[in-house]
């Protein structure tokens, strides 16, 4: 394996393992900032050693063991929490490669949920919670997070540093709360898990369009949360949404890794078990008898796609109505953009284009690549290929995902070919 290939492999391993690593270390040192530093130390050691020694059979176990040794060294060196050091030294064994896989499904896995509840504490602002989630749980760097916020990288870096310091200064407990405290933090936790799932479903940047392992972890956490809070309809709504969306993974990319859009996917290959689980979770949400919230409404939209035998049989009028309901519950430009797509499918592209054109003046969508991408698609359907090509090229310049950029480039080339006929 060449040095560049090793580097790419290590980067991929870090994206997969970093959240579990930070969660496990936070349980040890009770300081999320210190935990991230220790995890980064383990990564640096891996970058130094693995190109020569080769990547170990279980890189996650190697990183965890290395980071835990650094944690113990730090505690010993600074004489921090002497009693805690004794507990760690005598009560917690270092993970071996053989037992790591089992451990991830137990205590380590639960640590991720504790970390989410910790970072969703009300001492942090919503922006701080989102930035910290993208950093710790999704493995994005500050530059990638800054682009998603349409903010300066230095601003995001300061926000993340302040958030970690606040959690430490306020001694926010590393635990899943119970009772009213759990309910008070639940909406923030759901938002974080949803954000985590979305980053896996359509990666912000990188060479791959999807990150299935991140989605699987978000779905697992959602299922655990549904056991903890069985009477909260939006928990079941989010689980339903993630189950149904996950059913499409095999068809979201081609054999060569290229994105495959929803209307072009082979529905016979959708995972029917995940769809059934999603529909059952949606039914549980609806049976709790409250007005459907944003996750349940999005799950209902996904259910419309899942229940349509073919793309042509999709009930777009119902989907448009569900997006209308969603826009009332959680009004946002992105919901409005999705509503425009549904309306265009139900009533024609001209109606959808009218909504999209109104959204072009929305400041929050200034750097959002899907706005020109959707507009380009509607222009293609109206036969306005020159304008559509310009929109796809604009979208291509905005996205940071290599696979999505290729898709948009191909669509722009197709428009140029059609325009020249």
TrEMBL record:
<dbReference type="InterPro" id="IPR007627">
    <property type="entry name" value="RNA_pol_sigma70_r2"/>
</dbReference>
<dbReference type="InterPro" id="IPR013325">
    <property type="entry name" value="RNA_pol_sigma_r2"/>
</dbReference>
<dbReference type="InterPro" id="IPR013249">
    <property type="entry name" value="RNA_pol_sigma70_r4_t2"/>
</dbReference>
<dbReference type="InterPro" id="IPR036388">
    <property type="entry name" value="WH-like_DNA-bd_sf"/>
</dbReference>
<feature type="domain" description="DUF6596">
    <location>
        <begin position="185"/>
        <end position="285"/>
    </location>
</feature>
<protein>
    <submittedName>
        <fullName>Sigma-70 family RNA polymerase sigma factor</fullName>
    </submittedName>
</protein>
<dbReference type="Pfam" id="PF08281">
    <property type="entry name" value="Sigma70_r4_2"/>
</dbReference>
<feature type="domain" description="RNA polymerase sigma factor 70 region 4 type 2">
    <location>
        <begin position="115"/>
        <end position="167"/>
    </location>
</feature>
<dbReference type="InterPro" id="IPR014284">
    <property type="entry name" value="RNA_pol_sigma-70_dom"/>
</dbReference>
<dbReference type="InterPro" id="IPR046531">
    <property type="entry name" value="DUF6596"/>
</dbReference>
<dbReference type="InterPro" id="IPR013324">
    <property type="entry name" value="RNA_pol_sigma_r3/r4-like"/>
</dbReference>
<feature type="domain" description="RNA polymerase sigma-70 region 2">
    <location>
        <begin position="23"/>
        <end position="79"/>
    </location>
</feature>
<dbReference type="Pfam" id="PF04542">
    <property type="entry name" value="Sigma70_r2"/>
</dbReference>
<dbReference type="Pfam" id="PF20239">
    <property type="entry name" value="DUF6596"/>
</dbReference>
């Amino acid at each position: 394996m060449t040095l560049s290939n090793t580097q790419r492999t290590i980067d991929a391993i870090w994206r997969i393992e970093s959240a579990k690593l930070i969660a496990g270390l936070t349980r040890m040192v009770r300081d999320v900032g210190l935990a991230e530093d220790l995890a980064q130390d383990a990564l640096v050691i891996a970058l130094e050693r693995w190109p020569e020694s080769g990547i170990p059979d279980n890189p996650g176990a190697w990183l965890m063991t290395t980071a835990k040794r650094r944690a113990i060294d730090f505690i010993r060196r600074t004489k921090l929490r002497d009693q805690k050091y004794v507990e760690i030294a005598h009560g917690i064994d270092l993970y071996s490669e053989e037992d790591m896989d089992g451990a991830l499904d137990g205590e380590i896995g639960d640590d991720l949920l504790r970390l989410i509840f910790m970072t969703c504490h009300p001492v942090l602002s919503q922006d701080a919670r989102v930035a910290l989630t993208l950093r710790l749980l999704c493995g994005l760097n500050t530059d990638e997070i800054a682009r998603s916020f349409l903010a300066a990288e230095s601003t995001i870096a300061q926000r993340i540093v302040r958030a970690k310091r606040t959690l430490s200064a306020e001694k926010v407990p590393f635990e899943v709360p119970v009772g009213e405290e759990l309910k008070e933090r639940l909406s923030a936790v759901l938002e974080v898990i949803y954000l985590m799932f979305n980053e896996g479903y359509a990666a912000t940047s990188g060479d791959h369009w999807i990150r299935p392992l991140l989605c699987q972890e978000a779905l697992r956490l959602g299922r655990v949360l549904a056991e903890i809070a069985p009477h909260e309809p939006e928990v079941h709504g989010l689980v339903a949404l993630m189950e149904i969306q996950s059913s499409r993974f095999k068809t979201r990319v081609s054999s060569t890794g290229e994105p495959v859009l929803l209307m072009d996917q082979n529905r016979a290959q959708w995972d029917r078990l995940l769809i059934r689980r999603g529909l059952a979770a949606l039914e549980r949400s609806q049976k709790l008898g409250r007005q459907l919230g944003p996750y349940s409404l999005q799950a209902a939209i996904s259910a419309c796609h899942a229940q349509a035998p073919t793309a042509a049989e999709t009930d777009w009028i119902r989907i448009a109505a569900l997006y209308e309901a969603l826009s009332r519950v959680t009004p946002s430009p992105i919901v409005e953009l999705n509503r425009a797509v549904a309306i265009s499918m139900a009533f024609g592209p001209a109606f959808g284009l009218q909504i999209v054109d109104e959204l072009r003046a929305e400041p929050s969508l200034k750097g959002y690549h899907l706005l020109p991408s959707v507009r380009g698609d509607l222009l293609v359907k109206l036969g306005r290929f020159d304008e559509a090509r310009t929109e796809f090229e604009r979208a291509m310049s905005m996205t940071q995902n290599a696979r999505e950029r290729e898709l948009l480039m191909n669509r722009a080339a197709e428009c140029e070919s059609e325009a020249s006929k």
